[in-house]
């Protein structure tokens, strides 16, 4: 499996190349080559620091989850703006314990990051056994609905993506 040794994280390499090209807003051959070199060398040089590889069982589902998260970030930004600009009495902040059925540590970490990236929610802590996330939400109307939303939109796809 020599390709894994020379290209340890192909998705990360492709992402680095795409980000490089988007940041430079060009497809000039020099930038494509430099982006490809960075996309190859950075994961290769940092592979020992990153630890074991976690295979993604369903990469297309991962792309769909990414699009869902990006959409949720846009919608949550609008909702938070409406809450902040509205009357302060309308805010109902609170902490919610979200049960987690994911067994892969990277999947739990990814879930916590997704929650934190979404405006209006922050993952405060992960229990030592990784079975609970403590989430702070800016506006908690219904705890059960928040938990169900997190589990349906993020946790279920992560279970399939990380095969856990």
List the helices and strands and how they pair.
Blueprint (H helix, E strand, L loop, with lengths): L1 H5 L3 H15 L4 H22 L8 H27 L8 E6 L5 H13 L3 E6 L5 E6 L5 H19 L3
Antiparallel strand pairs: 1-3, 2-3
Can you walk me through this structure?
Keywords: Cell membrane, Membrane, Transmembrane, Transmembrane helix. Pfam families: MNHE. With 164 residues, this protein is mainly alpha-helical. It has two domains: 49 residues, no CATH class; 103 residues, Alpha-Beta Plaits. It contains six helices and three strands. A three-stranded antiparallel sheet has the order 1-3-2, covered by helices on one side. A hairpin with a 5-residue loop joins β2 and β3. α4 packs antiparallel against α6 and α5 packs across α6. The longest helix has 27 residues. The relative contact order is 0.14. The model has no long low-confidence stretch (mean pLDDT 90).
């Amino acid at each position: 499996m020599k390709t894994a040794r020379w290209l340890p994280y192909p998705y990360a390499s492709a992402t680095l190349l795409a980000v490089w090209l988007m940041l430079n807003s060009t497809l000039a051959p020099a930038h494509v080559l430099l982006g490809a070199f960075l996309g190859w060398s950075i994961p290769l040089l940092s592979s020992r620091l990153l630890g074991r590889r976690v295979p993604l069982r369903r990469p297309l589902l991962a792309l769909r989850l990414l699009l869902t998260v990006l959409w949720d970030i846009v919608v949550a930004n609008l909702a938070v703006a409406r809450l902040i600009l509205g009357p302060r009495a309308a805010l109902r902040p609170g902490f919610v314990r979200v049960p987690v059925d994911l067994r892969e540590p990277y999947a739990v970490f990814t879930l916590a990051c997704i929650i934190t990236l979404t405006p209006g929610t922050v993952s405060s802590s992960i229990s030592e056994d990784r079975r609970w996330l403590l989430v702070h939400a800016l506006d908690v109307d219904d705890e059960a609905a928040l938990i169900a939303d997190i589990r349906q939109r993020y946790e279920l796809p992560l279970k399939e993506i990380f095969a856990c």
